[in-house]
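Changelog excerpt

This revision adds worked examples to the README so contributors can see how folded entries look when concatenated. The first example is reproduced verbatim below.
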Amino acid sequence: MTPAIKAALIATFVFPGGGHLYLKKTLRGALLAAVACACLLFLMTLVYDSAQTIASGILDGSIAPNTTAIAQAMDASQVELEAKGGSVSWILLCTWLLGIIDGYRLGRKAPSQTTDDTRQA
């Protein structure tokens, strides 16, 4: 498997920047990973806050403890989540795609890691 394909697969299935780290491009890899981590942290914080708000509503009695009322509360909070997290989701997606494409591009430039011994086998 070529370094380009390995880098693209690592960036696709592991984490953005993983392919860059595999190719020893640590600054780019760390930057992509940091942006992705920041986006994920922000999105998870939004989801956690929304879940806490719904749970608090159930506990204080403002939301009835049945599936219909909880589903309505979740729908109402989803509008807020989309408003706050929509652009961050796009940033995360673009970061992930950039990591895949750039990792593949850098892998194509990298010298092949096969040696003469492995080519003869």
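The second example, added in the same revision:
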Amino acid sequence: MTVPVEPVEANRSWIATTQSDKEEAMHAQPGDWLEVEQPVVGRKPDLGEILEVRSADGSPPYLVRWSESGHTALVYPGADSIVRSADDVAAHQATHGPT
């Protein structure tokens, strides 16, 4: 059974639409983006570019540069995280502006 997850903001409808979207195995490649939802109501998710993937199969950990702060960190994403392809993020930003 899937439980709908409401978008944080109306213009951020590209956020996962069902809980099952988040439960799939996480895989990424350099250039993808990591989105981490926030526990604070009304605060937009953190978004960072994945610079490096430390495993051959694309599973975590990832070296991420956070877009808001520019800080780079090695991240082991949790259940509140979603990997977005570079193409998806670029298309969203072209339509809605930078996040």
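Reviewer comment on example two: The CA atoms of residues 52 and 63 lie 5 Å apart. The two ends are 31 Å apart (CA to CA).
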